[in-house]
Write a structure and sequence with these properties.
It is a single chain. This protein is an alpha/beta fold. The chain has a domain at about 10-180 and about 225-255 and about 295-310: NAD(P)-binding Rossmann-like Domain (Rossmann fold). It has helices at about 15-25, 40-50, 60-70, 95-115, 150-165, 190-205, 230-240, 260-270, 285, 300, 310-325; strands spanning about 10, 35, 55-60, 80, 115-120, 170-175, 175-180, 205-210, 220-225, 225, 245-250, 255-260, 275-280. The chain has a seven-stranded parallel beta sheet, with helices on both faces.
């Protein structure tokens, strides 16, 4: 049984990780959930039609009503703030500042004032190219230099939370490369597994970016790939702990894998011979591309999270065979 209790708020609850989180809460028998999101159309709307929750509120309405009356929605035991613009190519910084920074700041202050557990999505994008390390135990956050405006918007809130003295009382989760069911609506921000599946269906082959650094061969750029089912278990761990653990935590598998390994796992799941070509990387990405990410999850493990990670081939097989091929969402 889950130790979570009371009403739960999930922002971005129709999005990728948000809808997976609601699904995981439902798996625990929890349905007293208020979901917020925006632009509920198409695949995004389908993400939560099979899920159980008590109310849906447009994100803008939630923000406006809380500003006018902090008690407008009653009490929540936990707020999972996963709503954000997650596009790493977004160029409108004022929009990102408002949507990713200001809203998080408002919800965190509101939660703290009401004694509500606040767990929010930061991002591994805050680490930039990794030259300054990817260690969530290093409290010198000012050392980090994100490579894109999305990462910058997430980093700004991490810094604010630290400077305001909030971090010991809230939890910020630095998600690495999460993939899995319910990401169809994300367009260019979908994982390679999702994109590659579509490419294989259409052309029989997969295109991977060429490397522009001599120390990495084509396809051997590395990422820490995390299955969404593992990501939400980690996320819920911080709500279910009896202690008031706070701070920033890396959420990843702890193991970097190459794009070639991932692509080969997709072909294996489809029982097809690998057919991979290398394509030019768009010019706007070449200076802002992470060649290596790997989460140090020592801090996560120190909180008592002891579940094993789903091995990459198993995670890819589950995603491909049980969701992509039949066109299913979580809960369907």
């Amino acid at each position: 049984m889950s130790t979570l209790h009371g009403r739960i708020l999930v922002t971005g609850g129709a999005g990728f990780i948000g809808s997976a989180l609601v699904w995981a809460l439902n798996q625990r028998g929890l349905t007293d959930i208020v979901v917020t999101d925006v632009a509920l159309t198409g695949e995004k709307r389908r993400n939560f039609t099979a899920l159980k929750f008590t109310d849906y509120v447009e994100a803008g309405d939630l923000r406006a009503r809380i500003a006018q009356n902090p008690g407008a929605f009653g009490e929540f035991s936990t707020v999972f703030h996963l709503g954000a613009c997650s596009s790493t190519t977004e160029k409108n910084f004022p929009y990102l500042l408002d949507n990713n920074f200001a809203v998080t700041k408002e919800l965190a202050a509101w939660s703290l004032a009401r004694g509500t557990r606040f767990i929010y999505a930061s991002s591994a994008a805050t680490y930039g190219d990794g030259a300054k390390g990817m260690d969530d135990r290093d409290e010198n956050l000012a050392r980090l230099k994100p490579l894109n405006l999305y990462g910058e918007s997430k980093h700004l809130f991490d810094l604010h939370a630290q400077q305001a003295g909030w971090l010991p009382r809230i939890v910020g989760l630095k998600y690495f490369n999460v993939f899995g069911p319910n990401e169809d609506h994300k367009g260019d921000m979908r994982s390679l597994v999702n994109k590659a599946y579509q490419q294989i269906q259409a052309t029989g082959e997969v295109g991977l970016f060429k490397s522009y650094k001599p120390e990495y061969k084509d396809g051997e750029q590395q990422r820490d790939f995390l299955y969404v089912k593992d990501a939400v278990e980690m996320t819920l761990h911080f709500a279910e702990k009896a202690t008031t653990t706070g701070g920033l935590y890396n959420l990843g598998s702890g193991q970097a894998k190459t794009w070639l390994e991932l692509a080969n796992a997709i072909f294996s799941a489809l029982e097809r011979k690998p057919a991979i070509k290398f394509i030019d990387m768009p010019g706007e990405l070449q200076g802002k591309y992470q060649y290596f990410t790997q989460a140090d999850i020592t801090k996560l493990r120190s909180t008592g999270y002891d579940r094993a990670m789903t091995p990459l081939p198993d995670a890819v097989r589950d995603y491909v065979k049980n969701y992509l091929v039949p066109g299913r969402k979580l809960g369907e």
